[in-house]
Amino acid sequence: ISARDPGHTKSFSPLKNALEKKEDIVFLSLGTLFNNNVEFFKIALEVFSEYSGFTFLVSTGSQINPADIGLIPQNTIVMPFMPQLEILQYCSFFITHGGMNSVNESILNCVPMIVCPQQREQFAVGRRVQELKAGILLEKEKQDYNNLKSAFENMIQNRQTYFQNTLLIKESFLQSPGMNYAAEFIESNCKGKMLDSQSHKNP
User: What is the DSSP string of 37-100?
Assistant: First the structure.
């Protein structure tokens, strides 16, 4: 789960620079909808400033002016948009809002997560990530400096365990029979319930 060969990257220069320095890469993104949490970004930058040997890539989205989140540490790059799929190929950790797409993309790249939900659905996804020991859930009321730093320390100290658990989930994804089977399974179960319901109405 360490940085990989920069020769395999595309054109995103901050990522290439980080790989050339052979530093661990941490990506922070709160998605595209509920991503205007200025206070959380400020807290994250404060935590990041304490870690040498890491490059932190922070995607704020279009709703935040980078100037509003304060002083940016030397080890951190802040931009409105970053190529998430490319970055995840080289990440050590992903600090995410817990959107279903982002979590699946993280798992498929074997990247453990700190999930910081910004709304209810994301909390449910984050709770499942934590149950499967692929990352840590920070509930909304716990997204402060001390808890974020503690979660990050936990990830560093147990990185191999989190990585292995994420790899197991990825393998289960790849072994699953796919969306056609899932659709057929749902349809067959719904039909069974409909028939059962009708039998109760018509004795």
Answer: -HHHHHHHHHHHTT-TTEEEEEE--TTS-GGGG-PPPTTEEEES---HHHHHTS-SEEEE---H
pLDDT band at 17; cut points 50, 70, 90: confident
Q: Environment class of residue 40 by beta-carbon count within 10 Å: exposed (0-12), middle (13-18) or buried (19+)?
A: buried
What is the average pLDDT across 91-119? 95
Q: CB within 8 A of 182, min separation 6: which ones?
A: none
Q: Is 119 helix (H, G, I), strand (E, B) or coil?
A: coil
> What predicted TM-score, i.e. pTM, was given to this entire model?
0.82
| Spatial distance between the Cα atoms of 97 and 35, rounded to a whole number of angstroms | 8
Three-state DSSP class for residue 4:
coil
CB 90 within 8 A of CB 4: yes
Question: Over 80: is that where the pLDDT of 15 sits?
Answer: yes
Q: What is the pLDDT of residue 30?
A: 92
Q: From CA 134, how far away is CA 153, in angstroms rounded?
A: 15
Which pLDDT tens digit goes with each residue over 161-202?
A: 999 999 999 999 888 887 788 788 888 888 655 434 444 444
